[in-house]
Request: fold
Amino acid sequence: MSHGYYKNKTVSTNEDIVSGFDQIPVHRPLFIYFEFEGLRPNIPHWFFFGGTNVTTYIRTGVAKATFTNAARNSALKEPGDAYINETAFPAAQGGPTSSNGDGIKTDAEGKIFGLFYLQSNTTLSWQTKYSGTELVISDVQSVNKINSTSFAATQFSGFGQYQNYWTKVTTSTSAEWVAYTHSSNNDNGSGSQNVYNTTGSFNTTTNQWSYTTTGPGGYSSTTYSQADNQSGDFWGSLKEIGSIFNRSDNQFDPQ
Reply:
């Protein structure tokens, strides 16, 4: 028989399961390039986004090429959280054209262009809508164009989705056979451990038990019981099995 014991072994595996998507509720921080033409020349104008006055978040005079040719990792393309505490167009990008809320003048041709910094923080943010949000420019401090003599608007749309998922944890337990170890007789005091296994079988023709012990390095040894054993039955065979444990220190000693 083989000498050893069963050891429980537990294995856990994780699997991410996608359970759907949710729409992102507000716009993230973003720089938006704008260009308006056909306005009244050389007069102040104010900017509104979703009905909110955002004139201090405007930086005019920024060429379109400066924005479109910026590197992908440029803050102009992806500001992330770099400026979420700013209360106006970020100073690191030149600051606002009008820091005190005064209107920003169009040029002699009635044109105005530049960048709008769409802020998104706990104080100022805009809801994402499939219908979009209007960016308005007007020569009066109102989005009501009835009172305006110079007015233009454009639509901005942007939305995204969150991916929802949960983690499935699967745990399985199995029994792993671990053979007992025995110190080699010729380990020279190194204490190295070698594994020996013994199996037994009964021959009904000769009425004998045979015991085969195998070990490292191709070691193999076979012993046989007396015919019918001392008692001539199964219990006598057990005496033969016990005879292989013949050391006074109770260590297993292969024949």
